[in-house]
Amino acid sequence: MTVTDPATLTEDLADVRQRTLDLVSHLSRADVERQIAPIMSPLVWDLGHIAAYEDLWLVHRHGRRPLLRPDLAALYDAFETPRAVRGDLELLGYEDAVAYLEAVRERTLEALEERGPDAVIHEMVLQHELQHTETMRQAMALAGLLAPGEPRLPGLGPDLPGADAWLRVAAGTHALGAPEGRFSYDNERPRHAVEVGAFAIARRPVTNATWLRFVEGGGYVRREWWSAEGWAWKEEYDITRHAAVAAGRSGAPDAPACHLSWFEAQALARWCGARLPTEAEWEKAADRLDGVGHVWEWTASPFRGYPGFVAHPYREYSEVFFGDEYYVLRGGSWATHPRVATTTFRNWDLPERRQIFAGVRLARDLEEPS
Q1: What is the percentage of the chain residues whose pLDDT exceeds 70?
Q2: CA 222, 223, 226 angle in degrees (round to 5)?
Q3: What is the widest separation between alpha-carbon atoms in the chain?
């Protein structure tokens, strides 16, 4: 979605901001300001970062005005101030962070009136804030601070029988990536043709019930289902089933399993005699799958640039993460706004991460007809 009408854009900016403030409205000031875990920011840091990012892009670069608070630029820069240290820094308190958000927004609207909208930059800032509200929910989930009714992980119904549980996809060419004419991130471009072999993909993501059978069948003690890296991670950190799954907070037995690392997803796939789909397979089948958007779905694909990739508008969004360390997730979760969760959107994280609302959809090879 890309908006060019100033009135609609102003309304969208206000709606997204209200979602952000509502997200933390039930929390104490202490919970908003403390660091819940080293891998997550204090929630109040996210609020300051949202304000600083908007000021940088919509006021300074688009509106050609000085930064409102240049003294805060490094503090709220994600690369200058990594997550592990944010809880030790003197951040703006909750009231001051909200005041910073309000002051930046006033400047944003003035710049919008003076210079009109930039469809790409304004959409990027809107989606940036929406992505941060999901990240904030990840931190809240770790601390048991989600609002009543969350997470929203409905049941998918009875298991599909036998072959009905799988979608067969013929070999062929797929146009991978975002089409022209709509907002997309640099890592989704350029759209390009890829050859995809015949495969089968599960119609639904793996459920809590299936995950429980894996656990009770020795999932965390049977070495043969784990990669060398996954087993080493499990042994070093004494990994067992995620607390949210064990406590039943991730939903009914037929709800998608959530908070699975890539290592765990891969082990489960091997236990099932299956594998993780590549992101090309996932994207090719996405519009025919059930349950997309409840949990992020791990793929077998490392996060790399597409052929012909060009960083835009800054290389720190995607390019610095390219390589073999991060794996791609697709589809979105219950906490992802539909504006963000397109079928070409590429999320990524380290294979040991469990704080994200991630599950798994299985895939299998198919024999090519002779």
Answers
A1: 96
A2: 110
A3: 68
CATH number (domain holding residue 297): 3.90.1580.10
**Separation between Cα atoms, residue 29 and residue 223, nearest integer Å:** 45
Statement to judge: residues 288 and 178 lie in one domain: yes
Asked if residue 249 has pLDDT above 90, the reply is no
Range of the domain at 28: 6-142
Position 42 scores a pLDDT of 97
Residues 357 and 215 in one domain: yes
Give me the DSSP letters along 198-249.
-EEEESSPPBHHHHHHHHHTTTTT-GGGS-HHHHHHHHHTT--S-HHHHTTT
**Which residue is listed with tokens 């119609």?**
203
Answer left, alpha or beta for residue 243, where phi above 0 means left and psi between -120 and 50 means alpha.
alpha
**Residue 204, in any domain of the structure:** yes
Same domain, 121 and 181: no
Q: What is the dihedral of CA 180, 184, 187, 193, to 10 degrees?
A: -30
330 neighbors 198 (Cβ within 8 angstroms): no
Going by C-alpha positions, the residue among 2, 362, 318 that lies closest to residue 207 is: 362
Whether residues 193 and 120 share a domain: the answer is: no
- The pair phi, psi for residue 23, each rounded to 5°, is -60, -35
β-pair partners for 302:
327
Last-in-domain residue among 108, 142, 176? 142
Distance set, CA 126 to CA 3, 10, 130, 162, 282 (Å) = 10, 11, 6, 43, 26
Proportion of the chain above pLDDT 90, given as a percent: 92
Contacts (Cβ under 8 Å, ≥6 apart) of 179: 191
What element of type H or E holds 173?
Answer: strand 172-176
Q: Is this structure's pTM higher than 0.90? A: yes
How many structural domains is the chain composed of? 2
Beta-carbon contacts of 211 under 8 Å, excluding residues fewer than 6 positions away, are: 241, 245, 257, 260, 268
DSSP class of 189: -
Question: 94-115 and 6-23 are packed helices; what angle lies between their axes, rounded to 10 degrees?
Answer: 170
Q: Which residue has the higher pLDDT, 62 or 315?
A: 62
pLDDT digits (tens, 9 = 90+) for 170-205: 999 999 999 999 999 999 999 999 999 999 999 999
